[in-house]
Design brief:
Largest sheet: none
Order of helices and strands: HHHHHHHHH
Structural class: mainly alpha
Radius of gyration: 18 Å
Number of helices: 9
Strand content: under 5%
Shape: elongated
Amino acid sequence: MIQFFLRFLRTDASSSIILVRLIVGVVFLSEGVQKLIIPEVRGLGRFVKLGVFSPEFTAPFVGSVEIITGLAVLLGLGTRFAVIPLFTIMLFAIYYTQIPVFQEKGFWEMANKIRTDWSMTLGTVFLFLQGGGAWSLDAVITSRFLKPHTSSESA
C-alpha cells in the first residue's frame, strides 16, 4: 500500500509545473477562505441562492476542502490526491452556476462566464496527470523512498 502511495506521488515533470500549482492552489485557497469569512456572499448565502443541497453543511465543508487541498497543491504535497476533490468541486460549480446561464442566456454568455471554472478544471486535470513537478514536496518524498526512474525500467 505504501509503495502504491509513493508511486502515485512520483513525478517526473519539470520544475515549471510550479506555475500551474501556484494558480490552481492560490485560487482554491482564496475561494475557500472567502466561503468561510464572507459566508453571506461566497459561502452559505451563495449556496442557498444556487439551490445547493444542504447548504448549511456543504458551504463550510467545500470551503474547508478548498483551503486544505489548495495549500497541498501550493506545497506540492500529495498533489494528485489533492486535485481529485478540487476537480469534483469544479464539476459541481459548473453544474450549479454555468448550466443555468447556458439554459437562460445561451452558449456565448456561458462561454464568457465559464472561463475561470474551465481553467481551474483543466488545471486540476493537468496536475493529476503530471504530479507536483520537480519543485514539490512530492518529489522530495519520493526521491527519498523510491529508487530513481530509469529508461531501462520501462523497457
